[in-house]
Amino acid sequence: MKPRILFADDDPEIHKLIALVLQDEAYEIITADNGLQATEIWRSYPIHLVILDINMPVMDGLEACRWIRKRSDVPIMMLTALDNEQDIVNGLEAGADDYIVKPFRHSEFIARIEAILRRSYRQDKSDNGRLFYDKLLLDMDARLLQLKGKTIQISPLEFRLLRYLMGNIGVVVSKEELLQNVWGYEVIANDLNLVEATIRRLRKKLEMDPSRPHYIKTVWGAGYRFGG
């Protein structure tokens, strides 16, 4: 079966463009005009990837993202003209896995879709089990995070990022390495902002004082180190 992609945007011209690009790549596409319609379609069809604009009538993309994320780990990508750092943070907080700013290059767009679908389909047996550090437990089988025995809610993206960091305790990893191994694609334009925003969000959930982190430490000029 072709991967089925749900795309929501209130601009009919963008619908035509996205449909053309995705159909050329042998994807099946279902379109929605607003976030509410997107949630209704998501409930009615098996969907492999959701792509949402943010500024839409009836229900905006962030609200639609939150609604879907509460019910599923399906990959969600934001495709929007909103391009400042807080917009990216808002998308991540809503549960998005990726964030692309309009206008975009078709080749980059397809590469990001391929990467996010590969992550979704891949079954990595080495992920089974648990990772521990200090008072932190990441359970891969149950897909949950516990800090001092208390369950911490994290998004699928935050889970993947933390899994990579905890799998490399004491090792300095660059932002470029994280982008390649967690998001699954090469560095393009301002994608490093996505890494920085996700790290900050994780710190808020894990650290007593995010400005003086105990778990995810910044190594200036090099990247990040988990523990060690």
SSE-based structural type: alpha/beta
What is the CATH top level name of the largest domain?
Answer: Alpha Beta
CATH superfamily of the largest domain: Response regulator
Sum up the overall morphology in one term: globular
- What is the count of distinct domains? 2
SSE order, one letter for each helix or strand: EHEHEHEHEHEEEEHEHHEE
Named CATH topology of the largest domain: Rossmann fold
Strand order of the largest sheet: 2-1-3-4-5
Low-confidence stretches: none
Q: What share of the residues lie within helices?
A: 40-55%
Tally the beta strands: 12
Fraction in beta strands? 15-25%
Gyration radius, to the nearest Å?
18 Å
Give average pLDDT, whole number: 89
User: Main β-sheet: number of strands, strand sense, barrel status?
Assistant: 5 strands, parallel
Provide a descriptive summary of the structure in words:
With 228 residues, the protein is an alpha/beta fold. The protein has 2 domains: 4-121, Response regulator (Rossmann fold, 3-Layer(aba) Sandwich), CATH 3.40.50; 125-226, Winged helix-like DNA-binding domain superfamily/Winged helix DNA-binding domain (Arc Repressor Mutant, subunit A, Orthogonal Bundle), CATH 1.10.10.10. The protein has helices at 12-24, 35-44, 61-69, 85-94, 106-121, 156-166, 175-183, 192-206; strands at residues 4-8, 28-32, 49-52, 76-80, 98-101, 130-133, 136-139, 144-147, 150-152, 172-173, 216-219, 223-226.
